[in-house]
Amino acid sequence: MFYFYYYFCYLLLQLLLLLLLLLLSSSSSSYYYYYYYYYYYYYYYYYYYYYYYYYYYYYYYYYYYYYYYYYYYYFYYYYYYYYYYYYHYYYYHYHYYYYYYYYNYYYYYYYYYYYYYY
């Protein structure tokens, strides 16, 4: 923002100086000379201003897409690890129930054996 302020103040100063030179000039040749000088700087700053905004918006969209992909990959890895831990959670519980079933099976088996033979 300070750069914009500096730029416009400088441009205004240039225009005021040109206006002063135009008022002080008396001959027609010097008038056309400063007239040409004025339009030269006018178009110069116009294109400078245009390319500055082009540059500004280019970097604006560049950082916009940079942060967009950054958050995209962030959520991608977040869901990846979520899926990973969920899978292991399911896997360990599956084994827990499997061993639980296995343990009960043999428990009933020995119980039946004990009851039947004794």
UniProtKB/TrEMBL annotation:
It comes from Dreissena polymorpha. Keywords: Membrane, Transmembrane, Transmembrane helix. This is Uncharacterized protein. It comes from the Eukaryota. The chain crosses the membrane at residues 39-57, 69-87, 99-117. The lineage of its organism: Eukaryota, Metazoa, Spiralia, Lophotrochozoa, Mollusca.
